[in-house]
Specification:
Strand content: 5-15%
CATH class of the largest domain: Mainly Alpha
Strand order of the largest sheet: 2-3-1-7-8
Mean pLDDT: 90
Low-confidence stretches: none
């Protein structure tokens, strides 16, 4: 008869951020076990609160499903003697498998006909298998940080205090984390009082009766709805924050919403200072009026409050007032002097060991932002002046009372800097850049607005990436402590968003140069810029793939020495358009015909410099400098293709110099008829050694040019 299985792991309060991760890990472990152990069931669920992790497997069959295993033995021609009797090989195989020789069967394999033994393994009782698996589930759970609390027990996120394990009405005896399981649960991990549980159904009834909401999604719904209800009752609307909803839902088992208020005098503080004080420190929800301005009210939550709710609210208000008093003090201290005075303190704050101070970083940001502005050809009245001010002030709030020393309002970095810049009378473009140079902060975040913010944002991110590579702090595996992958994606997204023709290659070189001797002394030496460029290329490939571009097309474009992000993205999009239209195959096949005829040994030394020289040689009609002679062209098709390539190279060189490399696909596409005609009419590997070598040299130089724009060998399926 089927029965339900229940496991409850009771522990001291888990950090809110750990709950979802632990539940995901537990779900994966249970799902894998049920499948691998062949345990039939009607389904399973995983629930969790900060005090308990719960597994419920419904309708567990009494036994595992039986398993059949077929072991292949000797070939039939070895297993049978000429008279048809079994050989020693067949008898020995049957004995090793624990079956009689008559039970062997013939099976067809890729290598021919063989004898095989079919073994059937009867299923064990499901409960005995689960008894073995439960300790592995518990000990297999992983969290960002762990602790030890019990000698001999493996580390866990928080101390485990009890284990409830039931199969129907029967307690399942297991031992894990230094504890023996039983049929008792607790409503609080800090209480020694326990409650006997008769069955899984009675367990869920007990949780419901105790108002413990096991399902995290259900708790999120309760928190969201109750916060909105109390906000409306306070005469406003909730400042929506799904992150805060999730945090609060995983802090509580029995969410109870409480309405509180604070002195309206605090509303003179910048909006985000108040919101941060409520959210980051107290986990309270802010309330806004119809005009979007904050109201002096908040919604907080308690875990199962029944009595003295007003006393709890007074306690919440008292703690919040202390936080807001701190914010008022910091704000007054910081705004009592011009914002630029904070920037003067940056020379005393080390950025990265061996790479100078934040003031040094500000000077590099200014120089790099000006370089990018000139490279883009952007003109604008007072633009350089605004870049200088924004670069100088971008990190100034790190020296403020509000942000420095890891105080409660550290998350306001950038935002509070903009507010201080406004108070000090800085130009709006400068003030906005102080905040927006940090954008985008995560995938899907908005980009900075305005030229000053865009230029300073790119310069800051490029400087950080270059500095970390110099210091040997580049990402490894899943480790990226300085967020360099995010910074690189930010650079690429901003450049693409502006539509600017910006040479990333030039930007990297300029960024490296600005570090002077530190860059020269880097362990990468002369390979520093190339390593940074490859890092951007990897992030660019991941970015374009996430946006739906075909993997092989992106790889083909970025395997070439691409320089302009906008042009590379446009080229990948054009290849995808050609594929969708069914026009890519003839194009790719023609390019591959050129590549495939060249000996592999001749391709190994290809470099962008060689390709650029070949491009110039064709464009300037100096075939002699390219290593082949037009006088040895014996076929009309040879002469015509040389003329086609030379004309194309004039256009390709201009497209490359102007940063419009995406035009290369249209230009290279014009060569397809000539290439096909060439291979139809010309025998490259002819008997005349001199003519053959001349033809291969011509095709090799042509391939070098093509490879400057796209590696067509990486395009698959055409």
């Amino acid at each position: 008869m089927k029965r339900d299985f229940l496991l409850e792991i009771g522990c001291e309060n888990l950090p809110s951020g750990y709950v979802n991760e632990l539940l995901a890990g537990l779900r994966s472990l249970v799902e894998e076990s049920l499948r691998a152990d062949r345990i039939p069931c009607d389904g399973f669920s995983v629930f969790g609160t900060p005090k308990r992790l719960v597994v419920h497997v419904a309708g567990v069959a009494p036994k595992q499903e039986a398993a059949e295993d077929r072991v292949v033995g000797p070939p039939v021609k070895v297993a049978f003697a000429p008279d048809g009797s079994f050989t020693k090989a067949a008898e020995g195989f049957a004995k090793s498998q624990g079956v009689s020789v008559d039970m062997l069967v013939r099976v067809e394999t890729e290598r021919g006909e063989y004898l095989a033994a079919a073994r059937r393994e009867e299923g064990k009782p499901s409960i005995s298998v689960l008894r073995e698996r439960v300790p592995r589930w518990i000990e297999g759970l992983r969290s960002p940080k762990t602790m030890r609390w019990n000698a001999g027990a493996p580390p866990f996120a928080r101390p485990i205090r009890w284990i409830l394990c039931l199969y129907g009405k029967s307690a399942v005896k297991v031992r894990a984390a230094g504890l023996a399981s039983g049929r008792r649960t607790r409503l609080s991990p800090l209480s020694e009082d326990s409650i006997p549980v008769e069955s899984p159904a009675r367990y869920f009834a007990l949780m419901k009766r105790s108002r413990i909401v096991l399902d995290p999604e259900e708790r999120r719904g309760i928190v969201r709805a109750e916060a909105q209800r109390l906000a409306a009752r306070s005469g406003g609307r909730l400042v929506e924050d799904e992150e805060l909803v999730s945090i609060v839902a995983n802090l509580l088992e029995s969410p109870v919403a409480l309405a509180g208020s604070y002195d309206a005098c605090f509303l003179r503080l910048p909006r985000e200072v108040i919101v941060t004080a409520l959210k980051s420190h107290q986990r309270y929800f802010s309330i806004a009026g119809g005009d979007g301005a904050l109201l002096p009210h908040f919604v907080a939550f308690a875990d199962g409050v029944r009595r003295n709710a007003s006393g709890v609210v007074r306690g919440y208000e008292r703690v919040l007032r202390a936080r807001l008093d701190d914010a008022v003090f910091y704000f007054k201290e910081d705004t009592a002097k011009p914002f630029e005075r904070m920037a003067e303190k940056l020379s005393g704050i080390v950025w990265l060991e061996g790479l100078g101070s934040l003031a040094d970083k500000a000077r590099r940001i200014e120089a790099l932002a000006r370089f990018i502005r000139e490279a883009w050809g952007i003109e604008g009245e007072r633009l350089d002046e605004h870049i200088t001010r924004a670069a100088m002030l971008a990190k100034a709030d790190l020296a403020s009372e509000m942000v420095k020393d890891g105080k409660e309002f550290t998350a306001l970095q950038g935002y509070i800097g903009r507010e201080y810049a406004r108070v000090s009378g800085e130009a709006p473009e400068v003030a906005d850049a102080v905040l927006e140079h940090y954008l985008p902060r995560f995938a899907g975040d908005r980009l900075p607005r305005g030229r000053v913010a865009e230029l300073v944002a790119i310069a800051d991110k490029m400087d950080t990436i270059t500095g970390c590579f110099i210091a040997g702090l580049e990402p490894t595996g899943s480790q990226d402590p300085y967020g360099l992958r995010r910074q690189a994606l930010g650079v690429l997204r901003i450049v693409l968003g502006t539509g600017a023709t910006f040479s990333l290659e030039d930007g990297i070189r300029r960024s490296v140069d600005l570090f002077g001797e530190a860059a020269a002394a880097s362990k990468r030496g002369n390979g520093l810029a190339a390593a940074i460029r490859e890092f951007y290329s990897q992030r660019f490939q991941a970015m374009l793939r996430s946006e739906g571009a075909d993997h092989d097309l992106v790889a083909a474009v970025l395997a070439a020495p691409w320089e302009y992000p906008r042009a590379a993205a446009a080229a990948a999009a054009e290849l995808r358009r050609l594929r969708s239209a069914g026009a890519l195959a003839p194009f790719v096949l023609a390019m591959k015909r050129v590549a495939n005829i060249i000996p592999k040994a001749m391709k190994t030394g290809f470099t962008p410099d060689l390709g650029a020289r070949a491009l110039d040689g064709f464009a300037e009609g100096s075939a002699g400098d390219l290593g082949f002679s037009t006088e040895l062209f014996a076929s009309e098709a040879e002469k015509l293709l040389y003329e086609d390539v030379s004309r194309a190279c004039v256009r390709l060189r201009e497209a490359r110099r102007s940063g419009r490399s995406e035009l290369s696909l249209e230009i290279l596409g014009s060569l397809v008829p000539g290439i096909n005609r060439y291979f139809d009419d010309v025998l490259v590997n002819c008997e005349d050694e001199g003519v053959k070598n001349n033809r291969i040299a011509f095709l090799t130089r042509s391939y070098m040019v093509i490879s400057l724009f796209c590696d067509f060998s990486l395009i698959a399926g055409e």
